[in-house]
Structure formats: structure tokens, C-alpha cells
Design goal:
The longest helix is centred in the C-terminal third of the chain and has 46 residues. The chain is elongated, with a radius of gyration of 33 Å. The protein is mostly helical. Helix 2 runs antiparallel to helix 6, helix 8 packs parallel to helix 10 and helix 9 runs antiparallel to helix 10. Strands 1-2 form a two-stranded antiparallel sheet. A two-stranded antiparallel ribbon has the order 3-4.
């Protein structure tokens, strides 16, 4: 058996030969591997359970909107974004991730890809949970609502990639040449109009992921953290200068008061009434 390092090197060489970004491959592979493992679990062991195996997986890996259920399964904030229940769901998600993941990596680093995928999915989850608990429209389905899939994470990556190069053109379905900015408009419109449809939770999570992708691009391009740091440094520098100025003014005022006292003493008792230090101060001031 080949050593693990050798297999890893062979995989990296294969990815390089086919110009497949490593981070994109690993996230695609993770989603597919989890899907296949879940399907094997349902097929091989599901019949031996007292309850449906698919339901057990949903309860354990999908994200519940109902907060008491979420508190019992907090790990679903992460697992839901890698969990797909049916083949068409993961097929279209992975195709979408492949196209826009490659576009994302033209403008950003592999580490940023990972952060946007994970945090985009997390923000999408928060948007989904908040919407289901705030709006009365979802009151009846709230206790049983579950979300799953990488769509929110992919939407974060998609929006960041599109906004980084909105005029870039692609062939939609291999036929229609279109700017990617119009794709962003289309998918956001579909998600907004789908909030009250059957997959409401998915559409809400998509919007949350898209929002994070947009914020990520703004932070990356405008770097407000750098601006805040510069403003803070200027504030500290100005405050130090003001303190030094006030200190210098107080020092001059104290010296003037001391000089006035010495002059009064000189007028009252003559030069001989002054001490050595007072004579030195007076001499230094006059000089």
C-alpha cells in the first residue's frame, strides 16, 4: 500500500495536471462523500431500525428552525451545509459550486474560499432560523422545519465572485451569452419571490448567504478595518499631541507664577533675600 503522503502527492499532481483548484476539489469531494455515506447508511442499515433511516439522518444532520431542537443538535449549524438528501439536489449544487467556485478563486485565495463557504452557510442558517421564528407565516411548520444543503454557502461564493467581476460573461446552459451580474439579479429575484413557496427555508438561507458574500466583497475591496485602524491611530496621535500641548502650557504657567513670586520677593527684600536656586531661576529667565 502506498504511503498516505505518496497518495496525497499523486492527488495534487493530478489536480495540477487538470488545473482543478485543490480547495474546490476538497469541498466538492466532501459534499459528495457525505451524500454517498448517507445513502449507504439508508440502504444497508435502514431496514434494521425501528424508525425510518432517512428520518434519523434528517434529525441528526439537517438544521432545525425550532430553537429547542437546535439547542439539542447545535452541530447542525455546520453539518446542514454538507448534507443533501436526494441526487438532483447535490448534482445541481455541485455543478453550481464548480462554476462559481472557479470564478471565485480567480479573484480570491483558497483560504478566503473556505471562510466564505463556512460563514456564508452560517449566516444563511441564522437568516433561516430568524425568519421562521419571527414571521407568523411559518408558525404552523416551525416545529418540523428542517434545512439542508450547501446552497447558502454556494450563494455566498457566487455573489462574491459575481460582484468581483460583474461584467464577466458566461454561456448560460452553454447557449446564451450573458453577463454574470444579470445572473445575480435573477437568482436573488427568484429567491425573494420564493419565500412563501414550498422551499421557503432554502430561499431564505440563499438570501442570507448572498448577503454575506456581498458583505465579504465590500470588506475585502474597501477594507474598512484598515480605515478604522487608521482613524484610531489618528485619534490616539491627536490626543497625545493635545496632552503634550496642555502639559507644555501648564509648565509655562507654573514657571511664570514662580517668576512672579521671585520678583515680588526681590522687590520686597532685595537681591540678597533670594536663595541660590531663586537667583539661578531669575538669571536663567532673564537670559
Amino acid at each position: 500500500m502506498a504511503p498516505v503522503s505518496s497518495l496525497s502527492q499523486q492527488l495534487q499532481a493530478w489536480l495540477a495536471r487538470w488545473r482543478i483548484p485543490s480547495v474546490l476539489f476538497y469541498y466538492l469531494a466532501s459534499n459528495v462523500a457525505i451524500y454517498l455515506l448517507c445513502r449507504f447508511y439508508v440502504t444497508l442499515w435502514g431496514l434494521g431500525l425501528h424508525r425510518d433511516a432517512s428520518s434519523a439522518l434528517l434529525e441528526f444532520l439537517a438544521l432545525p428552525a425550532y430553537v429547542p431542537n437546535l439547542l439539542r443538535h447545535p452541530w447542525t449549524l455546520l453539518t446542514y451545509m454538507f448534507f443533501h438528501e436526494d441526487f438532483t439536489h447535490i448534482l445541481f449544487n455541485m455543478l453550481w459550486l464548480w462554476v462559481f467556485g472557479k470564478m471565485f478563486l480567480q479573484h480570491f485565495s483558497p483560504r478566503q474560499f473556505q471562510w466564505v463557504y463556512l460563514l456564508g452557510g452560517f449566516v444563511g442558517a441564522l437568516a433561516y432560523i430568524a425568519a421562521y421564528n419571527i414571521f407568523p407565516y411559518f408558525e404552523l411548520v416551525l416545529p418540523h422545519a428542517l434545512a439542508m444543503g450547501a446552497s447558502a454557502s454556494i450563494m455566498a461564493i457566487t455573489l462574491a465572485a459575481i460582484l468581483a467581476a460583474p461584467n464577466q460573461e458566461v454561456y448560460l446552459w452553454g447557449l446564451l451569452r450573458i453577463r454574470v451580474a444579470w445572473i445575480a439579479v435573477g437568482i436573488l429575484l427568484i429567491d425573494f419571490l420564493g419565500i412563501t413557496q414550498s422551499n421557503a427555508g432554502g430561499h431564505i438561507a440563499h438570501i442570507g448567504g448572498a448577503l454575506f458574500g456581498s458583505i465579504f466583497l465590500y470588506i475585502t475591496r474597501h477594507n474598512p478595518a484598515h480605515s478604522i485602524r487608521l482613524a484610531w491611530e489618528k485619534f490616539l496621535r491627536d490626543r497625545t499631541q493635545r496632552r503634550q500641548k496642555r502639559k507644555h502650557q501648564r509648565s509655562e504657567q507654573d514657571e511664570q507664577k514662580e517668576l512672579d513670586r521671585i520678583l515680588k520677593k526681590l522687590a520686597a527684600g532685595g537681591y540678597g533675600a533670594l536663595t541660590a536656586s531663586e537667583k539661578e531661576k531669575l538669571f536663567r529667565r532673564q537670559r
